[in-house]
Design a protein that fits this description.
By secondary structure, this protein is mainly alpha-helical. The protein is 65% helix and 6% strand. A hairpin with a 4-residue loop joins strand 1 and strand 2.
Length: 254
């Protein structure tokens, strides 16, 4: 039995088993089955069913199928992103505090890493949608890129800042920055370029999600390596001077 004439967002066929009082309504969604528009159709159907199914006491109406499963995965990932982000940032922040014996430096180091993540996602979204003409960024991308870039960006910042801290023990902070940048810059930059190139190789993958992950991470690593670690972190540390190591002191002079 056809439920509608196909003029709406879905067409449907219904089956009913009188003996068990069980029915099945098969919906064919006209949208791309893995697109946000298809997920919105699933959510609108569930919202309508939640208002009242008319099945009487004990009656239930469930929405299943591949599209519904992917819609549930998207919702779960979006909800878990907040928890993962909080735990990741908190863990990295604690490690920075213990390593640098400071409360100030870890704060601006975390902010620079977040800036790198936000910038990379903005550039990647513009590239995928406006340049490559894709429908959008996969809902897997923000979580994956966040975890990878926070970990990688924090590593590079730790390498540089810990060396600045060591070099500032018996000399002014700005002199320590110059020495630390000179001695670690080539190694960190080379590591960043190799890592970015490795992720960029995913552009040849046939799956769009792998392409998006590779490009987004490669952009983030380049931003972190060439801008955040090379320019932004040393500049902030130079401006703050000895205050970067508060409440402890490095022993040098500003």
């Amino acid at each position: 039995m056809t439920i509608n004439d196909g003029a709406g967002p879905t067409s449907a066929v219904a089956f009913w088993a009188p003996a068990t009082k069980t029915g099945q309504l098969i919906l064919t969604i006209k949208e791309d089955p893995y697109s946000p528009a298809a997920f919105d159709v699933i959510r609108s159907i569930r919202a309508e069913l939640a208002k009242g199914t008319g099945l009487g006491t004990g009656g239930r109406a469930l929405v299943g199928g591949a599209i519904a499963q992917f819609a549930d995965i998207q919702t779960t990932i979006s909800e878990d992103f907040q928890h993962v982000a909080i735990l990741t940032l908190l863990g990295v922040f604690v490690v920075l505090i213990l390593l640098l014996r400071s409360l100030v430096a870890p704060i601006y180091l975390m902010l620079t890493v977040l800036l790198s993540y936000g910038t990379s996602m903005g550039v990647a979204t513009w590239l995928f949608q406006d340049v490559l003409g894709q429908e959008g960024v996969s809902y897997f991308i923000p979580l994956l890129v966040f975890v990878l870039l926070i970990a990688l960006g924090a590593d590079y910042n730790i390498f540089l800042t810990s060396r600045i801290r060591e070099e500032s023990e018996d000399r002014p902070v700005r002199a320590g920055i110059r020495i630390a940048s000179a001695r670690t810059g080539a190694v960190i930059t080379a590591a960043g370029l190799i890592l970015a190139g490795t992720f960029a190789s995913l552009v040849v993958a046939p799956l769009q999600i792998l392409l998006q992950v590779g490009v987004a991470v490669a952009i983030g690593v380049l931003i972190d390596t060439l801008i955040v670690r090379s320019l932004l972190v040393p500049a902030i540390t130079a401006l703050l001077g000895e205050r970067s190591w508060w409440p402890s002191k490095s022993g040098g002079n500003r």
